Amino acid sequence: MRLLLDAGNSRLKWGVHDGQGWVAQGAVTHEQIATLASQWAGWPICSVHAASVAGPAVVEAISQAAPGVVQWVRSATSFADVRNHYRNPAEQGADRWLAVLAARQLCADDVVVACAGTALTVEALTAEGDYLGGLILPGQALMLRSLAQGTAQLDRLAGTVQTFPQGTEDALASGVLAAQCGAIERMCRQLACHTGRARPHVLLTGGDAASIATQLAVPATIVDNLVLMGLLRVACES
Description:
Shape: globular
Order of helices and strands: EEEHEHEEEHEEEHHEHEH
Helix content: 25-40%
Number of domains: 2
Structural class: alpha/beta
Number of helices: 7
CATH architecture of the largest domain: 2-Layer Sandwich
Oligomer: single chain
Strand content: 25-35%
CATH superfamily of the largest domain: ATPase, nucleotide binding domain
Distance between the termini: 16 Å
Number of strands: 12
């Protein structure tokens, strides 16, 4: 069995795979990582692969709790049939690269990969396997927090998404979601213009994926734990 770990900005997502399917999956806050040690010890884990965009304390907590030596996966210039055109892959968050590798397994055509968590990342991948790069922007909670902290009168709960918001709370909710959808839709247009082909498909993952999908002007498929799927691919094919 393999243990796959995705340490994000806010949570650790994990999964145990037995070669046929997922035996178990879960997610905890960074402060709860140590509590997983006894649970993981209950499986015959043969390898541990992990990716992290969190700080050194989280990396250390994972290393202490894991039932074996952790193999840390980082972004690379290429993997299998995917070529990374990022200028300096060493500075790129491994989660973005792994999401692209998983998307390549799921979709052979042009695809835009959007990971909607603490931050929203939006990646462009061609049918030829060229990962062209992508966007990073604040997630929904971060956008709302920045408005609350940076303005005098917007420290309030967001309302509901409306086509024409007529109240401040609804304007906040609608504006934040419109910004995220706009970034994804813009990337779709840019990728189609680059390739000269039809509009690419969109894969969405992360905690805010469902809310984004309801408002996107392009078709999208939600895929849970895309980064864990990328880690599994690396673990199996390396």
